[in-house]
Amino acid sequence: TPLIKLSDVWKTYQMGEIEFDALKNVDLDIYSGEFVVILGPSGSGKSTMMNLIGCLDVPSKGIIRLDDQDISKLKESDLAQIRGQSIGFIFQQFNLIPTLNSLENVILPLEFQEVDPDIAKKRGQELLEIVGLGDKLTNLPSQLSGGQRQRVAIARSLAIDPPIILADEPTGNLDSKTGTYILEFLNEMHQKEKKTIIIVTHDTEPVQYADKIVYIRDGQVEKIEYRNKMEN
Ligand code: ADP
Ligand code: ADP
């Protein structure tokens, strides 16, 4: 069975009198260990899709299952618990806390999970070393380059060792060298640790790493393409 299953999912935004269907009749299966790229132009519904897959929001209509559990009608506190256990987020704007240094930012999700502080600190240091920032533990975000901030965000997304990593425009605000580094890194997580990687983007660069490419346009899945990668 799929790890994530969207069945006839709709998302309707209400603006006063006006209703707008940002997602219409979306069916999508994502299997454990897949590298999925959700590709579409600006305004096609990518962020809406990411919010639903990431348990940040619920659909207006339809069913979303995660690990066979129907999550479509859960309340925020239950969604938050699922996010905390299962999903590592990499946001376009990084969402680092400006007053916390790299290490503190990375271990924040572990503090929410009430992980022992010494263990959290050790894991945070390891993760920052993995992303090549072992010498920047005490730098604030303002004391890092854009690419370095993105790497802190990646380290943070891995803190809880989530089975799913969900990245919103991971190459968005970065120079192409840093963007490629990030994609290579996610690809390594996918291959070595069998993580499920989901990238939501308008950029075609991530497509080369994908097992599955989901094209969305005007809130609908236009087509799904499968790639036979030479792995496994
Ligand atoms: P993308 O991420 O592909 O740019 P979004 O999911 O952000 O697309 O938006 C899809 C459509 O839904 C857009 O037309 C956008 O204007 C509309 N939309 C997104 N969020 C809201 C909201 N909170 N209220 C009303 N309309 C929204
Ligand atoms: P955008 O797609 O507009 O550039 P982001 O990539 O920063 O925005 O965030 C994508 C979506 O995730 C937005 O709808 C935002 O509200 C939500 N979001 C961003 N950061 C967090 C967070 N730390 N916790 C919960 N939701 C978040």
From TrEMBL:
Q: What SUPFAM superfamilies does the database record attribute to this sequence?
A: P-loop containing nucleoside triphosphate hydrolases
Q: Enumerate the InterPro entries for this protein.
A: AAA+_ATPase (IPR003593), ABC_transporter-like_ATP-bd (IPR003439), ABC_transporter-like_CS (IPR017871), ABC_transpr_LolD-like (IPR015854), MacB-like_ATP-bd (IPR017911), P-loop_NTPase (IPR027417)
Coiled-coil stretches noted in the UniProt entry, renumbered to this chain: none
GO function term, MF aspect, one? transmembrane transporter activity
Is Zinc one of the keywords? no
- PANTHER family, sorted: ABC TRANSPORTER ABCH.1, IMPORT ATP-BINDING PROTEIN
- Please give the name of this protein: ABC transporter ATP-binding protein
This protein's species is Methanococcoides seepicolus
Record lineage: Archaea, Methanobacteriati, Methanobacteriota, Stenosarchaea group, Methanomicrobia
